[in-house]
Design a protein that fits this description.
Structural class: alpha+beta
Strand order of the largest sheet: 8-7-5-9-10
Mean pLDDT: 84
CATH architecture of the largest domain: 3-Layer(aba) Sandwich
Radius of gyration: 21 Å
CATH superfamily of the largest domain: Glutaredoxin
Largest sheet: 5 strands, mixed
Number of strands: 11
CATH class of the largest domain: Alpha Beta
Order of helices and strands: EEHHHHHHEEEHEEHEHEEHE
Shape: elongated
Distance between the termini: 27 Å
Helix content: 40-55%
Length: about 270
């Protein structure tokens, strides 16, 4: 999940804020504060590295041997459980070896975990529309049609604009996924641009998209409360909203989202 005009990841923002809170608490706790700070920070770093390595191993085919993409954590690809377990084990091991940091580290860790849990739970409650909005969109030929689909498949809607750099970066990924996925509808809804602008962009990028619609008045964005692009909305077969993702996807993180939200429903043909 992402936030703000620069698509800064909310998950990363929450993590950094929680680490900062833990560091402040460590300093307040007194004895061994500086060492406690290092214990907290090192545990977080180890957790992130292990979580990233686990994720990359899980979705290795999606990276196609591209090492820079494997190392680029900005795609938000982390396995939570291995990361949390490894970070916690390191923290416990260091606390057991250094008695003078125990008080500060324990208070700091509790404060960080509590703030992270509360902020993460709060961030997941921001969707403004529980079901697929009943609005109309238009195709490149100007034909008006409803946004809603009635084929019973899960529906993924990507809200984008050609001026949006993160949108441009993820578009080839989603275009390829659209060609290769079976069991889900993927719809691209451009926000506020003219047919000529969209057509010129697709031609310049050599992109061929199915289910491409235009939303010149940003009606969809208003209905779902989207304030930054790209925003990707995940609906189940009944039209119920199950998740919202702000910011760009990599191929691996998109596949991960589908695995989590639609277990067993999606077939990927490479």
């Amino acid at each position: 999940m992402n936030i703000g005009p620069f698509s800064f990841p909310v998950a990363l923002f929450i993590l950094l804020t929680s680490v900062a809170i833990a560091v402040v608490v460590a300093r307040i706790a007194g004895q061994g504060a500086s060492d406690a700070e290092r214990v907290i920070v090192n545990s977080v770093i180890v957790g992130l590295v292990v979580g990233r390595l686990s994720f990359v191993a899980h979705y290795l085919p999606a990276y196609k041997g591209d090492v820079p993409k494997m190392l680029d954590f900005r795609d938000q690809g982390f396995d939570l459980l291995p990361g949390v377990v490894s970070g916690a084990l390191l923290l416990l091991w260091m606390v057991a070896r250094r008695a003078h940091v125990r008080r500060a580290t324990i208070f700091a860790a509790l404060a960080g975990v509590f703030s992270w849990s509360v902020a993460t739970a709060f961030a997941g409650t921001g969707s403004e529309s529980a079901y697929l909005p009943a609005v109309n969109v238009v195709d490149l030929n100007g034909k008006v049609q409803p946004l809603a689909r009635n084929d019973g498949k899960p529906l993924v809607i990507n809200l984008w604009a050609s001026w949006c750099a993160p949108c441009r970066s993820e578009m080839p990924v989603l275009a390829q996924a659209q060609r290769e996925l079976h069991g889900v509808d993927l719809e691209f809804v451009n926000q506020g641009e003219s047919p000529a602008t969209v057509s010129d962009f697709l031609a310049s990028q050599r992109l061929s998209l199915q289910n491409l619609e235009l939303d010149p008045s940003l009606a969809v964005a208003r209905e779902v409360g989207a304030r930054v692009f790209p925003t990707t909305l995940f609906y189940d077969g009944t039209g119920k909203l199950v998740a919202v993702h702000l910011g760009p996807f990599s191929r691996a993180t998109f596949e991960s989202a589908l695995d989590i939200l639609y277990p067993g429903a999606i077939v990927v043909r490479r």
